[in-house]
Design a protein that fits this description.
By secondary structure, the protein is an alpha+beta fold. Helix content is 26%, strand content 26%. The strands form 3 sheets. Strands 1, 2, 3, 5, 6, 7, 8, 10 and 13 form a 9-stranded mixed sheet that branches. The chain has a two-stranded parallel ribbon with strand order 4-11. The radius of gyration is 28 Å and the shape is elongated.
Length: 253
C-alpha cells in the first residue's frame, strides 16, 4: 500500500501539471507569428472536392483551419468561412505538406481523408508541452435568440460566444481551455511530469533524512534520539532505521 501511494501521488501531480500547462498555454500564449504551413489536398480519388487547410504551430500549441468546396469544378469559388485570420501575422513556411504533421488528433485528419462527410469549414486548437495533450473546436451554432454565434465545443470558453453577423470572425481572439484529451500526449506529459515530481519528492525526503541523522534525530519522524541506547528503535514512530546512527553523533553523558 505504501508503494502504491508513492506511485499514485506523483501520477496525480503529473496529471495536474499536464492540465495546468495545457490550460496556461491556451490562456496566455500570444497568438501571433506562428509558423504557417499549407496542407495539400490528399483526396485524389475525389477530384470534385477540394480542401484548403492551414496548420499553425507555436510554442506548445497547434491551430488548424480548413475550408472545403464539395463541388469543386476548377471555376467555383471556395465557400467563404466565418473564420478569418486564425493567427496574427503568421510566419509562412515555404512548400506544401503532403499530410498533417505530428500525431493524429482532432477533426482535420478526417476532413482530409473523407471531406464529403465533413462540413464546409472548421477550426481546432490543441495545447500541451512537451507534447500536445488537449484540444477543442471553434464552431458556429444557433443561440437562444436564434442568432448564429461562434462557440467552443470540447472546451471552456474564456469569453462569451461571438456573434456571426455575416462577416468573418477574427479567430485568434477566441480563447478556450481544452477539455478533449489527446491520449498519447496526455500519457507522455503525465509520465514526464510525474517522474519529475517523484524525483523532487524523493530528493527532498532523502535530504531531510540525512539532515536528521546528522543532528541525532530519527530520520523518519525527527524525534530526538539523545539519551537512548545504541541500536534502540525510535520510541516515537518505531522506525528500525533509527537504529543506525552516524558515528559523529556522540550521545551526551
Amino acid at each position: 500500500m505504501r508503494i502504491l501511494r508513492a506511485i499514485a501521488l506523483p501520477l496525480v501531480l503529473g496529471l495536474t501539471t499536464t492540465v495546468a500547462v495545457a490550460w496556461g498555454i491556451a490562456a496566455w500564449l500570444p497568438q501571433e507569428e506562428w509558423e504557417q504551413r499549407n496542407v495539400a489536398y490528399a483526396g485524389d480519388s475525389d477530384p470534385g472536392c477540394m480542401v484548403t487547410m492551414r496548420e499553425y504551430r507555436g510554442f506548445g500549441a497547434v491551430r488548424r483551419a480548413w475550408t472545403i468546396d464539395h463541388e469543386f469544378s476548377g471555376r467555383r469559388k471556395i465557400p467563404s468561412s466565418p473564420f478569418e485570420v486564425e493567427i496574427l501575422s503568421p510566419s509562412f513556411v515555404s512548400g506544401l505538406l503532403a499530410h498533417l504533421s505530428g500525431p493524429a488528433w482532432g477533426d482535420a485528419p478526417g476532413a482530409l481523408a473523407d471531406p464529403r462527410k465533413t462540413g464546409h469549414y472548421g477550426v481546432e486548437h490543441a495545447t500541451g508541452w512537451p507534447v500536445l495533450a488537449g484540444w477543442y473546436i471553434l464552431d458556429d451554432s444557433v443561440s437562444v435568440s436564434r442568432d448564429v454565434v461562434i462557440d467552443v465545443k470540447g472546451g471552456i470558453p474564456l469569453q462569451p460566444p461571438m456573434p456571426f453577423g455575416g462577416f468573418p470572425v477574427i479567430t485568434w481572439r477566441l480563447r478556450a481551455l481544452p477539455l478533449r484529451p489527446i491520449w498519447r500526449g496526455l500519457a507522455i506529459d503525465t509520465a514526464l511530469y510525474g517522474a519529475a515530481c517523484l524525483l523532487l519528492i524523493g530528493g527532498t525526503g532523502a535530504a531531510r533524512r540525512v539532515v536528521r541523522r546528522r543532528r541525532g534525530r530519527c530520520p523518519r519522524c525527527g524525534y530526538d534520539l539523545a539519551g537512548l541506547q545504541d541500536g534502540a528503535v525510535c520510541p516515537e514512530c518505531g522506525a528500525r532505521e533509527a537504529m543506525v546512527r552516524p558515528t559523529h553523533c556522540v550521545r551526551r553523558r
